Amino acid sequence: MASIRLFTASPSNRVFMGYLRFPRFYASQATKGTAEEPSAESDLPVTFVEDEDLQAAREARIEQLRNKSRLLPQHRNMLHNQLPYEQSQSWIHETVKYKRMMLGRYGLEGSKVDPRVCFPTKQERLEKTEYERVAYRNTLQEMMAENKKSKEEKDTRIRAREDDVAKKMEKLDKWVADLNARIAKKEAEARAAKERKDRLVEEVRRHFGFRIDPRDERFQEMLAQKEKADRKKVKEAKRKEKEVKMMEKLKKRTADLEDGEGKASTEDAEEVEKK
Asked: Which stretches of sequence are listed as region Disordered (predicted)?
């Protein structure tokens, strides 16, 4: 049972009488015990005060009932812009990063953090200097010059590419015409080959003088002979055409050389006359 202590009510502490809820029995017994001893305060009413532990528990209970939000204490502290935890609850709360964050959010007084954690230590400064020396070897001016050079090279490549595209676009019509010519040539060659094949088959049929199955060995043998002779004729024709072209080139080159010699002799004669 909690301990109980007595005090004499006076005008200054009568405010607390409304909060006391003890049975009247204790008050009456105390009044009987003190009535026998005459004193200056014998006619004042006597009351009781609860123990400090009970009063603290009641205040905690009242505070809990007042918390209608049902938030956790740390969340309620954050809502009121206060430090979430008074004591560290995890190893994270002891890290430099967390302390710096608390210091930046709640200030010097609210965070209870030593502001020296915001400044790097001597070892950290040395490590950072070494990292910068290895990672960034060039000075700012050198990096700017290198960046300018790379940008100029990139612009040069872009301009060269654009010029190349422009030149090719000028030749596009010629390329399209050449492509169409090659396609037409291949189609003509394919038609010529088909016509030649049909012609040879018809010649073989006329050679035998009667209708014969194309799968017959005699037909195949005669067709092979005809194809061989035809290829020989085509080869001979190409050789003659090539010889004709070669002769034309030689004639043209000879004419150019004669024209050049004539011009040179004319110029020499003019120089002699001038002299």
From this structure: 226-275
